[in-house]
Amino acid sequence: MTAGRGTVRAAGIERRGAAADIHPLELPHPRCGPGQVLLRVSAVAVNHVDTFVRSGTYPTELAFPVAVGRDAVGVIEAVGDRVDGFAVGQQAWTNSLGFAGRPGATAEVVAVDVERTYPLPAGVDPVAAAAALHPCATAALAVDRHGALERGETVYVAGGAGQVGSAALVVAAARGARVLASAAAADAGYCRGLGAWTVLDYRDGELAARLREAAPGGIDVQIDTSGHNDLETAVELAAPRGRIVVLSGPASAPVLPAGKLYMRDASVRGFAISNATVDELARAARTVNTMLAGRQWEPRHVLERSFADASWAHAQLEAGNVRGARIVLVPPKTAG
Q1: Domain containing 143: what range?
Q2: Nearest-CA neighbor of 55 among 327, 315, 330, 323?
Q3: CATH number assigned to the domain comprising residue 306
Q4: Smallest Cα–Cα separation from 83: which of 32, 126, 129, 45?
Q5: Domain finish residue from 255, 274, 293
Q6: Which residue, 12, 129, 3, is CA-closest to 75?
Q7: Would you say residue 277 has pLDDT above 50?
Q8: What span, in angstroms and rounded, lies between the C-alpha atoms of 74 and 111?
Q9: Residues whose CB is less than 8 angstroms from the CB of residue 209 and which lie 6 or more positions away in sequence, other chains included
Q10: Domain count, the chain
C-alpha cells in the first residue's frame, strides 16, 4: 500500500480485540505541536505489554483508529515550539507511545512529547536499540525504582537468562550489588558474564536451600522475571525490610503469606512499566542509554520483520513462540 498525500502508513486497530484485528492503516500525517517532535520511525519493538493494550487486558485510553506499539527509534524530522535539546536529523527514541491516549509507534511518522523523547547514543543501530529498550528500561525501573537497590545489598534475579532478567543482572551489578541468579544450567556462564556472582539451576529441587546458603542474611531485593511468583518462598528468603518486585503477567495470582511478610517488615511491590511516571521513565532512559552506548546488554536474538507482520508478531508473542528472541518491525520502503 502506498500512503496518500498527507497520510502515513501504519499497522494498528480500530477496536480492542485479537491479534488478527491488527491490519494496515492509513493515518493522517501527524502535526508537530508545541513541546513535541516528529519522529520518522526506523524500528519498532513488539512487547507483551503491547498485546495487553491491544486486547484490553490493560485498560487504557485509545483514540481509534490507532497504531499499535510503544517503543520506537527514529530520526527527528520536525521540532515544535518550546523544544530544546533536539534538532532535525537527530536520532532519538521513545518508549511510552500507544496508550493513555497517545498515538502508537507502528507508523511511518509519529508525534512524540519531548518529555518522552530521548537521544539515541551515536553509533547505535536503530534495530538493535529498539530491541533493547523494553528489557533495559524495565530492568532499570525494577532495580532502581521498585527494588530501591543500594550498593552492597544482595539481589536475586529469577529467570536471569531471560531478556528482562539478564538486563537486570547488568543494572544490579553496576549498582555495586551482590547478584544472585537462577537460570538453566546451560546459561550459567552467560549470567556470570553479565555480573552474577552466583548462578543456580532453576530446576534444582533444593533451590531455596541453596539461596539461603548463598545469602545467609537474607535477600534484600528479589526480582522474579520467570513468572512463577512463589511469594511464600520469596518472603522466607527476604532480608529484614527486603523488597520483592512482582513483574508477573495479568493472569498470575500468587498466594501472599501476609504474616511472615509483616514479621520481616518486608514489602511486595507490583510493577507494570505502563504506570511509570515521566520522571521515572527519564531516569530509566539515562540507564538505558548508558547500556546502549557501552553495549552492556544486547538481545541474544532479534527477529526483524516489517510493519505488515504486526499481527503475526502479536500472535507469536501470545502463543509463546518467540522465547529468547525480540521482534522488531521496520516500516515499508517508500515507493520510487
Answers
A1: 134-274
A2: 315
A3: 3.90.180.10
A4: 32
A5: 274
A6: 129
A7: yes
A8: 11
A9: none
A10: 2
Of the ranges 97-106, 177-186, 225-234, 272-281, which one carries the lowest mean pLDDT score?
Answer: 225-234
Instruction: For residues 3 and 325, give the distance between their C-alpha atoms in angstroms, rounded to a whole number.
Output: 31
pLDDT, tens digit (0-9, with 9 covering 90-100), for 234-264: 999 999 999 999 886 666 666 667 777 767 7
Report residue 250: phi and psi, to 5°.
Answer: -65, -15
At 159, which CATH number? 3.40.50.720
Tell me which residue of 164, 190, 163, 168 sits closest to 179, measured CA to CA: 168
Alpha-carbon gap, residue 66 to 48, rounded angstroms: 18
Question: What are residue 295's phi and psi, to 5 degrees?
Answer: 50, 40
Q: Is residue 126 part of a domain?
A: no
Residues 255, 306: one domain?
A: no
| Distances in whole angstroms, Cα of residue 106 to Cα of each of 68, 98, 189, 209, 307 | 6, 9, 36, 46, 7
* CA neighbor of 175 nearest in space, from 291, 94, 264, 13: 291
Helix (H) or strand (E) run with residue 93 in it: strand 91-94
- Torsion sign over Cα 133, 139, 144, 145: positive
- The grid coordinates listed for 149 are 537497590
- Are the CB atoms for 173 and 140 separated by under 8 Å? no
DSSP, res 335: P
